[in-house]
Design brief:
Shape of chain B: globular
Oligomer: heterodimer
Radius of gyration of chain B: 17 Å
Strand content of chain A: 5-15%
Structural class of chain A: alpha/beta
Low-confidence stretches of chain A: none
Strand content of chain B: 15-25%
Bound molecules: nicotinamide-adenine-dinucleotide
Structural class of chain B: alpha/beta
Number of strands of chain B: 7
CATH architecture of chain B: 3-Layer(aba) Sandwich
CATH superfamily of chain B: NAD(P)-binding Rossmann-like Domain
Helix content of chain B: 40-55%
Low-confidence stretches of chain B: none
Helix content of chain A: 40-55%
Mean pLDDT of chain B: 97
Number of strands of chain A: 7
Shape of chain A: globular
CATH topology of chain B: Rossmann fold
Order of helices and strands of chain B: EHEHEHEHEHHEHHHE
Distance between the termini of chain A: 32 Å
Number of helices of chain B: 9
Number of domains of chain B: 1
Largest sheet of chain B: 7 strands, parallel
Largest interface: A-B, 42 and 47 residues
Radius of gyration of chain A: 17 Å
Chain lengths: 262, 252
Amino acid sequence: MSKLFDLTGKTAFVTGAASGLGYAMAEGFAEHGALVTLADANRAGLDAAVAKLNAAGHQAMAVELDVREPAAIRSAVAGAAKHYGKMDIVVANAGITGGAPISEEAGHIENIDLETWNNVVKINQTGVFATLQAAAAVMKPQKSGRIIVTASISGLRTSEVSGYPYTVTKAAVIHMVHLAAIELAPYNILVNGVAPGPFMTNIAGGRLFREPERVKAMANSVPLKRMADPQEIKGLALLLASGAGSFITGQVIPIDGGSTAL
Amino acid sequence: MARLQDKIIIITGGARGIGAAFCKAVAAEGAVVIVSDVRDGAGTVKAIEAEGGRAIFIHSDVANSKSVNDLINDVVKRYGRIDALVNNAAIFANLQRQNFFEIGEQEWDDVMAVNVRGPFLLCKAVAPVMMKQKAGKIINIASGTVFKGQTGITHYVTSKGAIVALTRCVARELGDYNINVNAIAPGLTMSEGVLSNPQMTGAGANATLNTRALKREQQPEDLTGTLVFLCSSDSDFMTGHTMVVDGGSVMR
Ligand SMILES: NC(=O)c1ccc[n+]([C@@H]2O[C@H](COP(=O)([O-])OP(=O)(O)OC[C@H]3O[C@@H](n4cnc5c(N)ncnc54)[C@H](O)[C@@H]3O)[C@@H](O)[C@H]2O)c1
Ligand SMILES: NC(=O)c1ccc[n+]([C@@H]2O[C@H](COP(=O)([O-])OP(=O)(O)OC[C@H]3O[C@@H](n4cnc5c(N)ncnc54)[C@H](O)[C@@H]3O)[C@@H](O)[C@H]2O)c1
């Protein structure tokens, strides 16, 4: 048996970890031996998530924070690193949709109010940047680390069902991954992104679970003809976090049932 | 826990280099490996057996449809199914550098026959087996040179560009059957073949190394994690994609 994907003794910090993809990634790391810190703005969700992991015999801690507050992220990552003596893996995952797609009246350019725009930028773009800053601050001195950013296929390809704030912020973090990968490589810090296609999560306020017709259409547009379960992000995140991915950096990897086929 | 327990996996070009490393890696994860090559693959099989793994060698020329069909039929007869096919065999490490306008027609055709027709024939032969199973993984080995337009081996780079395209098309056509088709694009890797060709090492290799974010030589073992991932159920929602594994030279 090989140790390619083993994370025993590694520490991980995941934002947006109370739900969906963030929770699945944290759980996947924990299942491979990592000590995980879950960060999220949703206190109740966070407590339930950490309780579930600890009940399964994993080692998990919770930090309540809003990624719109860079200082909070910095102190949370530094705090977890201090607690465990190091921080090996940081995932900048928290994100929201926001703003209707251009196929809808509300998504037309003149109808996007700047409040919505700014809020999505704050969470999806500045929040990711602040998380990368916090990660680099602890990883540079330790001269090792893995950073994973949750982008989206919306950041790779635009379409009728994309909205301005979401698409643009997701495109921005893809460039952020490339740039950070170059800058941080001399410190042995690998930076990659995942670009999910349609996963059944609570995104957009749980709309996917309320609108089966929309979900059916989404699934049919995917070459594999289905939506993904959040569990299915685990393997890719693990590849990028473990020894198995030691020569992968600067990549944003679609996991989308073939929608983009890049 | 082994990630590929009892999976039946065919790896072409498994006699040496990257292909041999792939064979050993999937065997270590519990797979039964069919090492295939025009070269003798006994060495790879022995190395796997020495570690307690399972492997057999089946001679096959990927450029020849009869030989490819014989390989697939033989594997189905022995094991009853094929879980993964890795199209790794190619004409590469022995190539001599030259300008594109110096490449002879015959050499061009030889490269295309092995590097493009080969994976096409294998995909075609394995598709009915995997379609019937409603499951399967195809992993094609492309190259990072496609995204750079590497000079001196234009026939090779063109052939690998075709692999990226083949991967996308076959992924879309087989999506309905729950078959995942992906590619890996390695950077310059110190396989035995590369090491034995002075044109592939030295100054040229150093120039390549300097384009990477991670400034070190790439070894075949740097590719095995990605290959295991793509052979396993961990990648069930990924298809049509070419994963670049090159230390951050090409960023996509
Ligand atoms: N579900 C999909 O189909 C899909 C597709 C592409 C990309 N993504 C991306 O995946 C990431 C995770 O989304 P998900 O689908 O798991 O959704 P989700 O809503 O299930 O989970 C997102 C989590 O982030 C938290 N969060 C939101 N805003 C926050 C803030 N300001 N500070 C801290 N935490 C905050 C939420 O409380 C929630 O727990 C997002 O970046 C999203 O854009 C999702
Ligand atoms: N080494 C690198 O720098 C590098 C970089 C990018 C991609 N690749 C790709 O990785 C794969 C393996 O490369 P390598 O460096 O190990 O090369 P290699 O030349 O050492 O190995 C290729 C193997 O394929 C076999 N082969 C050749 N023609 C065949 C045929 N017609 N039928 C069956 N088998 C045949 C050879 O006998 C050899 O064992 C190739 O697809 C190559 O293009 C290599």
